[in-house]
Specification:
There is one protein chain. The protein is about 70% helix and about 0% strand. The chain has 7 helices and no strands.
Length: about 170
Amino acid sequence: MNSALLINISRFILLLAIQIIIFNNMNFLGYISPFPYILYIILYPVNGNKSGLLASSFLLGLVMDMFCNSGGIHATACLILAYYRPYIFKFSFGLSYEYQTIKLNDSLTPERFSFILVSVLIHHIILFTLEAFQFSFIIDILLRTLFSTIFTIITCIIIIYLIKPNRR
């Protein structure tokens, strides 16, 4: 096994464990629920195996659904995020994505922030829409999406800076 595969497997297990043990028990005011487990999909290597990303994203969502008893909404949201990830890269990075010179673990730039923002926003809109599944709850869906997105982005940025290797 190469080191990239070991890093991805350990990131998968660690983020899933943190989400299940810590963040699944957090719910602030009924509107703020952090979901930093999607950082696995966001930090997956740009030139990595696309079908491996789709399969592992589905598995990530499926395990979350089993622990949250949510009936497939996490698996759907993760799979859609993984599928649209190249388009989000192209939107956020432009020509840099074409040459695959992107590293998300580096310092936070506007391009990296927009990539994280759009990714989290897509995941949360799909997740909360499928959770409510009624048009009459549109205000609730938008409020939960907005507040959870803000809190998830802050959590993801903190986690990225905590796991970022120090350069001297």
